User: Fold this.
Amino acid sequence: MDPETQRIFEVVKANVVKVLTGLDPALVTIERSLTELGANSVDRVEVVMYSAEDLGLDVPRAELHGARNLADLVAVLRRHAGA
Amino acid sequence: MVSGRGFAGGAGTGYPALVAALRADRSAIRVVAAGPRVPALGAPAEFAAEAWWDGLAAADPALGARARRLLRNVPRPALLGAAAALEAAREAGLPADAPGDAGTGVIVAGSNLAQDWGFANAGAVLAGRSPNPRHAVVYADSHQVGAVSELLGLRGPGATVGAAAASGHAALFQAWLWLRAGVVERCVVLGAATGFSPVEAEAFALLGASSPAASVAELGGPFDRRHAGFVAGEAAAAVVLETEPAARARGAVPRGGLAGAALLLGARHGPEPDVDDEERAMRRALAAAGLTAGDIDLVSAHATGTPAGDRAECAALRRVFAGELGRVRVNAPKDLTGHTFSSAGVVAVLACLAQMEGGFLHGHAHLADPIDEAFSLVRRAEPARVRAALVNGFGFGGFAAALVLTSA
Assistant:
């Protein structure tokens, strides 16, 4: 994982752990999906929204609908971060 | 009968905190705002979610984790409600429902419970930001019902029942009907805390319904000649109601009984109290309980501290109790808790159960000069035997309600 992807993944991971309280952070790996980790539809929106906010990004919701796992989410965020 | 009790409000977190405040005539009312457009006085709960979760987790890590997950990023009334409901369920020893069970009912008193949360989210949207991601779920009337159901593992019928300040009465009336109809053997009734926004605070002040007092010293409480409006209080209150046979079969300890209930409309929609309606509600609740005014030891008055409301209730009580007026004791829990709106009826029920079990009557902290000397108002807490109590509750929309409670 390149440093920029790693940086964005760490932001996402922190929000996954914040939203899914009690989740072991070690389980949050980039190939996992939020659903696998126990997130419901509201939890998923929270993770995306807080991550975009933390990164200072405004990401159209439509671009996130196809995301199948955290790697996809990180890729969308990275594209908007312009890196 | 009532088998479980829970409270989270201005008096503290936990039913014992409410009992202690009642025994000491300790008011939760204090200065909470600078005014002048919004009322200066309030009776807020000092509820710390982290400490509550940690306390739950210390005794039961799985429960603590479930509560933290379920009640993170939700309106404050949902947190207080969950704390009260969980306490009541634990006291009752209420088991979670298995999928094949008839199920335990869940009724939440009050329907528009998160006004302050909505106000904050409106502000975000007006400023061009997204609303809270949970808003679509937690703004709904169903949120607290669902949260209590999930927290306690209950799978029976559920509903919110609203009647403004008489919501607690309406919810208990509904639960009483469910039990009598055999729909459920037990039901959690949660009087939800009401989270007013500055909009409601200003609107009540505009109507002259809330007290303009700038300090506690200036405040005239319910039935006091200086009364000039209610003081908003924040509290969630819960009871577990069960049929006698079901409770006995489980070995549940009775804490008192809901012997009769009445909920009536007045063919008028506004805020004005109506002496005839209040009288009808009290008489009907007594009849439903198979009791007369002579059987009642204590009236827990609706008495919010508005001059029109207090006077109307006195007039209705004069009619119902007539020759018993000097004997029956009267107190107003809102003097100590503030007016907790949606939960007010359930708070008053808890207060009566506490007085029955503890052998005392609570007094008032903001009553110096009563508007009507004919009543036997409890001035300061005193020992007493309470076997039957009448609990009044009236709400905007023309609601008049009354409950009859009997000691265990």
User: Anything to note?
Assistant: The radius of gyration of chain A is 11 Å. The domain at 3-81 of chain A is CATH 1.10.1200.10 (Non-ribosomal Peptide Synthetase Peptidyl Carrier Protein; Chain A). The first helix of chain A runs from residue 3 to 19.
